[in-house]
Amino acid sequence: MEHSFLIQVLMMLVIAIISIAILRRAGLPAILAYLLTGVISGPSGFNWFSQHQMQSVAELGVVLLMFSLGLEFSLPRLWAMRRTVFGLGSAQMIITMVLATCIALLSSFTIVESIVVGSAIALSSTAIVLKLLNEQGWLRRRHGELSVSVLLFQDIAVVPLLILLPLLASGGDVLSFSSVAWAMTEGVLIFAALMAFGKWGLPRMFDEVARSRSNELFMLSTLVVALLTGALTHWLGLSMALGAFLAGMLLGESQYKGQLEADIRPFRDLLMGLFFISIGMLMDFSLVIDFWGEILILLFAVILGKALVIFALLRFAKESFGISVATALTLAQVGEFSFVVLALAVNYNLLDIVLSTKLVMVAVMSMALAPWLVRHSLDIARIMQGARPKEIEAPLIVPSIEKDENQEKDLVLILGYGRVGQTIARFMKTEAVPFLVLDLDPTRVSEARKAGEPVYFGDVCKRSILKQAKIKEAKLIVLTFSDGRLLEEVLPLCRYLAPDAKILVRTRDDSNLAELEAAGASQVIPESLEGSLMLVSQVLYQCGVPLTRILKRLEFERRNHYQYLHGFFSGSETDFTLEHLHAVSLPKGAYAVGLTLAELPWDKLRVELRAVRRNGAEIEKPELDWVIRSADILILLGKPRRIEKAENYLLQG
After folding, report:
1. Averaged over 542-568, what is the pLDDT?
2. Summary mean pLDDT of the chain
3. How many angstroms separate the CA atoms of 404 and 409, rounded?
4. How far apart are CA 267 and CA 288, in angstroms?
5. How far apart are CA 57 and CA 504, in angstroms?
6. With pLDDT > 90 as the criterion, what percentage of the chain qualifies?
7. Angle at the Cα of 608 from the Cα atoms of 603 and 614, rounded to 5 degrees
8. What's the CA angle centered on 509, arms 507 and 512, to 5 degrees?
9. Residue 602 has pLDDT above 70, yes or no
């Protein structure tokens, strides 16, 4: 039985992988692939699982999604966009919800069902719209900014909706104003309590966790905080997702925001995938076939109705015709949070399964149309206005940001903010070179950020952290730490994400120089050898050697991988892993006397002849026809045991 269940789980995952691969090639979002997987795996398909079996795990996906949303909820950003967010966003949400609710009431639905339907239809897809706008480079255009503002308010509006659904479940068909007021008051009190705890407790806790330098502990703490706050609000009679959202919002202003988001993303994406699979299991295609005409009419009404509401609001706000049309088409679909609302409504027995299936199909089909509508929104606006592209394109473009883009292309990314990293940053700042720093020491990051330095907390082994740090725009990446394990992980990742950038790597010595260069390092700087070169340059300069000759000599050593700095005469404490110099004096009667250098098996001995000393004169790298005489001193370079064997061979054969 257990093996059968495991096989069914594996088969479901295989279906999900194949579905995502196919739909992504078609330019459709992964959400549709998860829904298709749910249909195939659920009662309408192979009937491996029921929606009830997936419910508990799937709800965790909603919790982590709300936690991630809270991390992105920035009070300063919200305040800067307050006019469009609270003006346009609230108007769109309220008008769309009221209209949809009234139409549902006229269609003989109960008031509770009508409110749920209106709430689900009023929401648009944040994930799909933001991704498409970013791909098209339209986030800074006027219609992109307006779309983001509306989506931001919708994300905020999800919070009171999550408070309202459990209340509707307990209140039946009659909605009491006093019960709504008490629930909102309770939510405000919980919000205030969590704000107090978040201000004093959470930052201190994550400071201690960060000081441990344990990725596992940081990730576990993130999950526990998200789930524990969700469990707390659930215990108080509210939604788990509400508590997770508040926890994310409290941590969104901290220095750990990027690391928290990177740690939570794999779990969130996996569990959200299961959530959408569970939604797909709700879909009954026998009902879809029976009501296909009604579903298509409802789909057309939803897209057209939402687009008309947004278009009318923007025209009333005196936006241009083209911007109004483009924004309306961008936001015309139903969003992923609509699935959350519908799923919770079914769980609370607020919606009939037939109505839920219809709405889920409408949401799925609208999201399938969303990529085409968003990508062609400007073209449709131009066609409707009857203007040539250049006549309408100018108002849609915000003021030029070419200067900022050029600065980003000259960005220097410094990984590690210890003494070396801080020294580099100071020189960058002096020369007005834009730079950004990532470090894993919470105290150091906190102190630097207080001083206004562009330093961020994050694990440089994580791809998402490096992407947030604009690694793709960096022209130079500097790895200032010398941890071998980190270099093995970080260096290939940096080279993969930034194939054209120059990567400088700091190491203690040059023992792994060739491997680091093969892994993608443009230049390796071994600090022990560079320190020796700096001291040598000062000694030579003080001895009167011309500066140009010193610089040429230093450059020659770097270009030849510091060959002149390899091999030293050992002391009382010998490191048998390093190469050393050893002088072998050949007395009369030694085996090598009378032989030429070419006659000696140097490859077999695995040592290098650095020089021969004869009559007080030293000859570096003599020719192979050099004949060895007695009293010659051969200076060998190699590891101690190999040198010992070579000496025995030279003396005894």
Report:
1. 65
2. 76
3. 9
4. 32
5. 45
6. 2
7. 125
8. 80
9. yes
**What class, spelled out in words, does domain 568-652 have in CATH?**
alpha beta
- The 3-class SS string of 274-325 reads HHHHHHHHHCCHHHHHHCHHHHHHHHHHHHHHHHHHHHHHHHHCCCCHHHHH
> What pLDDT score does 227 carry?
79
Alpha-carbon distance 99 to 302, whole Å? 11
Q: Which residue is it, tokens 């799909």?
A: 128
Contacts of 598 (CB under 8 A, 6+ apart): 624, 625
Q: Greater confidence, 327 or 583?
A: 327
In CATH terms, 411-521 corresponds, of 3.40.50.1110, 3.40.50.720, 3.40.50.2000, 1.20.1250.20, to 3.40.50.720
Lowest mean pLDDT among 102-116, 128-142, 488-502: 128-142
Instruction: Compute the average pLDDT of residues 223-235.
Output: 77
Q: Is 619 left (phi over 0), alpha (psi -120 to 50) or beta?
A: beta
Handedness of CA 390, 393, 399, 400 (dihedral sign): negative
Q: What is the three-class DSSP state of 245?
A: helix
Structure tokens at 199: 């201000």
* Nearest Cα residue to 160 out of 98, 246, 83: 246
The neighbour count for residue 129, using CB atoms within 10 Å, is 23
Tell the residue number behind the tokens 């966003």, with chain if given: 89
At residue 479, the 3 state secondary structure works out as strand
Sheet holding 580-585, edge to edge: 568-569, 580-585, 633-638, 608-614, 617-620
More confident residue, 428 or 258: 428
Say how far apart CA 542 and CA 530 lie, in whole Å: 18
Among residues 482, 502, 485, the alpha carbon closest in space to that of 494 is found at: 502
Q: What is the mean pLDDT of residues 97-120?
A: 87
Q: How confident is the model at residue 3 (pLDDT cuts 50, 70, 90)?
A: low
One-letter-per-residue 3-state SS of 11-53? HHHHHHHHHHHHHHHCCCCHHHHHHHHHHHHCCCCCCCCCHHH
Separation of alpha carbons 431 and 635, rounded Å: 47
Kindly list the domain boundaries of the chain, sorted by start residue: 1-41, 57-179+272-384, 411-521, 568-652
Q: Which pLDDT tens digit goes with each residue over 426-435?
A: 888 877 888 8
Kindly state the tokens that stand for 21. Answer: 């691969």
Cα distance between residue 322 and residue 395, in whole Å = 8
Picking from 600, 597, 563, the residue whose alpha carbon sits closest to that of residue 579 is 563
Highest mean pLDDT among 54-63, 147-156, 428-437: 428-437
Helix (H/G/I), strand (E/B), else coil: 375: helix
Collapsing DSSP to helix, strand or coil, 227 comes out as helix
φ, ψ of residue 396 in degrees (nearest 5)? -85, -5
**Distance from chain centroid for Cα 526:** 31
Question: Rounded to two decimals, what is the model's pTM?
Answer: 0.53
State the pLDDT at residue 164: 75
Q: Helix, strand or coil for residue 613?
A: strand
pLDDT at 363 > cutoff 50: yes
What's the burial of 185, exposed, middle or buried (CB within 10 Å: 0-12/13-18/19+)?
exposed
224 and 243 in contact (C-beta within 8 Å)?
no
- Amino acid at the residue 298: L
SS3 of residue 522 by DSSP: coil
Classify domain 57-179+272-384 by CATH architecture: Up-down Bundle (1.20)
Q: Which amino acid would we find at residue 19?
A: S
Closest CA to 505 of 486, 496, 531: 486
Q: What would the pLDDT profile of 281-297 be if each residue is shown by its tens digit?
A: 766 667 767 778 888 88
Judge whether residue 176 has pLDDT over 60: no
